[in-house]
Write a structure and sequence with these properties.
Elements (H helix, E strand, L loop, with lengths): L3 H24 L13 H7 L5 H19 L5 H24 L4 H24 L4 H31 L8
Length: 171
């Protein structure tokens, strides 16, 4: 069993990595409207099967709050979209990787990406009082592609981490 200090150290490193990746990704314009690769989700896809929910929830809060505070977007529509879609994606990833198990990171990432973009479209539709149904048709394929890339990168990351013994004595 890992020590509490070791758990918190790994949480801090992975949380910081998630924040840095999120900030870097926000420096580049989205591929199509709000579709980004979601590279910060690699951290969750890598961590989910091996860390407890309370640790992961802290990382999620860091991922949502710190970039918003640094970029000055706290409370904006972009922040609301990020918070709601990140939470939705996290719930999907947690459900399929930590609770049900047996799903590949690629398929879970694709599903999380679809949930992410769906929640963003719903929020924008409500916020702007428009019918966003046309956006579903336009954004689903890029979301699935982005989810596939993120899932593949997470699979490769897990293999590298397994090789260096990162997951030894899990939980």
């Amino acid at each position: 069993m890992r020590s509490l200090t070791e758990n918190w150290s790994k949480l801090f490193v992975l949380g910081l990595l998630c924040v840095v990746i999120s900030l870097i990704e926000k420096l580049f314009p989205p591929v199509l409207l709000y579709v980004r690769l979601g590279l910060a989700n690699i951290v969750f896809l890598v961590m989910l099967p091996f860390f407890r929910l309370r640790f992961l929830s802290i990382v999620l809060l860091l991922k949502i709050l710190i970039p918003a505070l640094i970029l000055g977007s706290f409370g904006s529509l972009a922040f609301i979209l990020s918070a709601i879609s990140s939470l939705g994606s996290f719930i999907v990833m947690f459900f399929f990787l930590a609770l049900i198990k047996g799903f590949s990171r690629i398929s879970v990432s694709m599903l999380a990406s679809i949930v992410n973009i769906s929640l963003q479209i719903i929020v924008v539709s409500i916020y702007l009082d428009v019918n966003g149904m046309f956006l579903f048709k336009v954004l689903y394929i890029p979301a699935v592609i982005a989810g596939s890339i993120t899932g593949l990168l997470s699979e490769l990351t897990v293999k590298k981490l397994e090789n260096i013994g990162f997951y030894d004595n899990k939980k």
